[in-house]
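ok so I'm stuck.
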Amino acid sequence: MADTELMDLARAVVSELYPDARAGWLGGSVVRGDAGPTSDLDITVLLDGPPAPLRKSLVYAGWPVELFVHTEESLRFFADKDQARRQPTMMRLVGESVVLVDLDGLGERLQREYLAEVKAGPKPLSADELDLLRYTITNLLDDLTDASGDARLAVASVLWQDAARLLLTGAGHWSGTGKGLLREVVAYDVARGTDYASSLLDEVRASDDRLVETVDRVLAPYGGRLFGGFELAAQL
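replied:
not stuck anymore, here's the structure
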């Protein structure tokens, strides 16, 4: 939970820049409790119309601030995009938040609704999505076999991310990008008693075959590697 000083600062940002805001939420690392020295304040603001929707970065009282300014309709639009890519950025910013401003109860209602969507998890992978992930990972495994030095590190860094996405989305868990992907794998490990978050990254840095073995274990429940017979129709 964010401390009182940061909450007051976030409220001041909303009050000064968007005095007509219907609702405002403080989310991100300062609310999760894992903020670092360079962390910013992630503030989502709900307006009835323009200038929403927009995204804006600024420094306020010495703090970097990321503003996500939306109408109710644009908030839903971007949450639906997050649903489609199975990365609940917008839903977490609102659902896992501290309510800063709430003129008519909409702030708390939307917070509850988006939190429920986060807890429900993403839709299952389609057969085409699953096959594409298996095929992509298979090609990366083949590339890794032939690579060494910097080339191996470059391939391995992409491979762990795609393997992590299959691990997560195949199990009905949200995915992410960058450190957000790592957070999701850590959460997966906590829920299931596994250690993929540490093992995959340790194996990326290593020069042996452990990464290949781990990725093959991730693939196994879905039929293993896929190359021969792969087919995916183009969508124009």
